[in-house]
Write a structure and sequence with these properties.
Layout: E1 8-12, H1 17-28, E2 32-37, H2 47-52, H3 58-64, E3 69-73, H4 79-93, E4 98-101, H5 120-148, E5 151-156, H6 171-191, E6 196-203, H7 209-214, H8 220-228, H9 238-249, E7 260-263
Helix pairs in contact: 1-9, 4-5, 5-6
The protein binds nicotinamide-adenine-dinucleotide.
């Protein structure tokens, strides 16, 4: 018996990285999982992600382990497509119990995205991928969860959404992730009377294939500083985050709502 037997989960951005780990963990707990992503083969973009795969997709991995999964390609920035995706999951499995709004990320380089020189187009793009994508997914599942009078929504901020970088770079991403954290507090108030919880996680530096390929090749000094600022003196793993998602998706967190949980090993702020 799994804790999520009979439950249905949607994870966005689940083709690789953190989203893949969330999808696999929820499936391991017994949930049927809709693995959604802009590109269900996005793991091919980063060597470490491609190497980590044990089957040809996250869906195939879950099915090989005996779980139930469907794959749906959807852009979370497209409100109508998000609504259609949620409708398809509901038609297929009759309910939606867990939503993990994981799709998102940044664009551009920190040096080019300082707070006082932000390119409006980049700001719009990153706000769209993160904040609007999250809001569209929550809007789409809310009527279903309200009818059920139950549901667990998990949104994804970042430590960059809790405190600013020392040089003011990546301000568009930080602002979008801060907005997600605060939006989640409002969501919890809105949906709480229907028995629905809404909580947010704020990962620190987590060694996904993307981070290993794009952030870690920085200087030895930068990498040492990054680790030394963390109380636990190590970077995070996708499983560090998946464990917190398990907590927020299961009955362990039934009386927890409207909180933002940093998953950063005790990063100095
Ligand atoms: N890895 C970290 O250190 C870290 C730290 C803090 C927060 N986060 C957040 O966690 C989430 C996942 O991070 P990751 O490192 O696994 O990222 P990643 O880039 O490796 O994976 C993101 C996945 O989301 C998909 N995606 C991107 N835009 C999308 C869209 N518009 N619609 C649907 N799918 C889309 C991508 O195709 C990809 O499969 C992101 O929201 C990110 O901002 C990550």
């Amino acid at each position: 018996m799994g804790k999520l037997d009979g439950k249905v989960a949607i994870v966005t951005g689940a083709a690789r990285g953190l989203g893949r780990a969330y999808a696999r963990r929820l499936a391991g707990l017994g949930a049927k999982v809709a693995v959604t992503d802009l590109n269900l083969r996005s793991f091919e973009e980063f060597e470490a992600e491609a190497q980590a795969m044990t089957a040809e997709s996250t869906v195939a991995e879950i099915q090989a382990a005996g779980g139930g999964a469907i794959g749906i390609e959807v852009d979370v920035c497209d409100e109508k497509a998000v609504a259609a995706m949620v409708q398809r999951v509901s038609d297929e499995w009759g309910r939606v119990d867990v939503l993990v709004c994981n799709a998102g990320g940044g664009r551009g380089r920190p040096v080019d995205t300082k707070a006082s020189t932000l390119d409006p187009a980049l700001l719009q793009l990153v706000t769209g991928m993160n904040l609007y994508g999250t809001v569209y997914c929550c809007n789409a599942v809310a009527p279903i969860m309200k009818r059920q009078r139950s549901g667990k929504i998990i949104t994804v901020s970042s430590v960059a959404g809790l405190s600013a970088s020392t040089d003011g770079g990546y301000a568009h991403y930080g602002a979008a992730k801060a907005a997600i954290a605060h939006y989640t507090r409002y969501l919890a108030q809105d949906l709480g009377p229907f028995g629905i919880t809404a909580n947010c996680i704020a990962p620190g530096t987590i060694t996904t294939g993307r981070i290993v390929a794009t952030v870690m090749p920085g200087s030895a000094d930068a990498n040492r500083d990054r680790t030394e600022r963390i109380a636990l003196r190590r970077l995070g793993t996708v499983e560090d985050c998946a464990k917190v998602v398990e907590f927020l998706a299961t009955d362990l967190s039934d009386y927890v709502s409207g909180v933002v949980i940093p998953i950063d090993g005790g990063l100095l702020r």
